[in-house]
Amino acid sequence: xxxxxxxxxxxxxxxxxxxxxxxxxxxSTEPVCVHDDLMRLLCLDEPAEKxxxxxxxxxxxxxxxxxxxxxxGTTSYSDYPEAAKDIPRIGSHNRIDMEAVLAxxxxxxxxxxxxxPTEQLRRLEELGIDVFWGEQRSFEDVAHTLERFGRLxxxxxxxxxxxxxxxxxxxxxxxxxxxxxxxRLFYQIWDDPxxxxxxxxxxxxxxxxxxxxxxxxxxxxxxxxLDVESVLSKDPEAIVVAGMGEDxxxxxxxWRRFEGMTxxxxxxxxxxxxxxxxxxxxxxxxxxxxxCAHMEQARERR
Amino acid sequence: MYRGDLQRMLPPLIVLLGMGLxxxxxxxxxxxxxxxxxxxxxxxxxxxxxxxRTLIIELRLPRAAAAFATGGLLGVAxxxxxxxxxxxxxxxxxxxxxxxxxxxxxxxxxxxxGVTAVSGSAFAGxxxxxxxxxGLAHGxxxxxxxxxxxxxxxxxxxxxxxxxxxxxxxxxxxxxGMLYWLMGDMAYARSPWPAVTVLVVxxxxxxxxxxSLNVLARGPLQAAALGVSVRPMTWTVYxxxxxxxxxxxxxxxxxxxxxxxxxxxxxxVLGNDQRLILPASALGGGILLVLSDTLARTLLAPEQLPxxxxxxxxxxxxFLYLLYRSR
Lengths: 302, 327
Prior knowledge:
- Chain A: This is Cobalamin-binding protein.
- The complex is a heterodimer.
- Chain A is α/β, with parallel strands linked by helices.
- Chain A has helices at 8-27, 56-64, 98-103, 118-126, 139-153, 156-176, 202-209, 228-234, 253-256, 262-265, 274-277, 284-300; strands at residues 32-35, 41-44, 51-53, 71-73, 91-92, 95-96, 108-112, 131-134, 183-188, 190-191, 194-195, 212-214, 238-241, 269-271.
- Chain A is elongated and about 65 Å long.
- Chain B has one domain (11-325): CATH 1.10.3470.10.
- Chain B has 14 helices and no strands.
- The mean pLDDT of chain B is 88.
- The chains are: A alpha/beta, B mainly alpha.
């Protein structure tokens, strides 16, 4: 006697009363934090609702990370995916319209370290806007950026599988061509002036995965300028060109007159749409698979 | 200054001052984000939304002030150079100063340094160029405007070659920023205060020299005959003009055309009295650059143009019209 019987119903009521408080504490979450590519810790109180992207590649990465609907402003030439074309523009990647950025009242600006004007990014920070300074130079960077964008936008359930898929596919390509005979490749990214890439460039890394050896890999500059004679003297086994559009392979034509070149004799002249391999985004896989197929064909023509 | 002079000079200066204030008001009220007049007034009186306050007070106002001061610096420096060299083609950059500044700025950019370092390096480059040109022109022989001019032009050509070399070897992603600097761009301007201070101080300092400058404009021999100590005078004018140009270039890159055309335009309208032309060039240069920068920001918004494009687009027809009208 004298015991106060605690009925199960009463326990339940007490528990239910506490529940909102507990769950409130849960959803008022700690801030989301990531390190950007300047290795600074960037923390948002909550996942960003309104994001501004400062390059076409970053826009693509945001869409891939499941944050596409949150992009409220981007730069000119943001043409992929289709939905990106309808996002309001806030200038070009090398001159940003500061007023347009401020007017969009973004929670987060994702920037491109080597492409955007540093002084404008600093100014945005001074005006109290959170800026993610990004730079993607390797496959790991692409995957890592996807994961971080997922975290910043609260779309990790989309971004993480995307990043994992990208890593597996790259690993698969690497495994497949690990023992392939090297193809001596000249990769032309511009025609006048004639420009190529060195081994630091993502394109050259992609080519290396396919078992291609960039004949200008050792040059010190990321995008060296060359003359035609130098290419002739190196006599590449295959030539891959970018172009001014998605299906403009006219840059191949000037090479055809050099009939003595191995690449011309074997007809190893290939075109790869620039946007599928020059942007550090998951679409890189598409361009790489194409490049690998071309290199495989060049081996068969030996 | 005589009473009659003052009465003659005051009206055009007041008109220019009024136009200057109008241009500033225009620059602050126009942008790629439209702000309704009511909202604008609210901000002016200390209210308004936070966004509008930031746009007007943090972005437009400092930029417009910097543009005005930079334009003023270039205008005064151009007027001084034209008097000093007695050559209508002289402009603030004719002696290679902008080339030296550009090499400084581009070097800092190549090393990926920030805005402050780029400005500092540009200023240092400008100073190196000044010392180089003046030292070489002085040489062992006598000092003549022709000799100074030739030295300056050749040094400028040398800087030009260095700039081209640097552009050819720079990583492609840095080239747009460099080109914008070379064309002149107010987006680089951070705080307007250095430019404003230097402009005001220079105008006040040069005021008493106006009469001597008038005499100097007729040639060193006449000036000497009329009791002007020519050599210290020339040195001072050259030093002041160089300093003004260096500050302008440091603020906003190598903005062309303002320094060449604004003093000429004003001379066509107001006559060639340096006491009037110097302050008028300060105001006129300021007005041209503020208007140009406002157009550069808004013409193709959200795309941003370098202001150097617009100064020439506005200045060329105006100048040609004035030249055609004058006999």
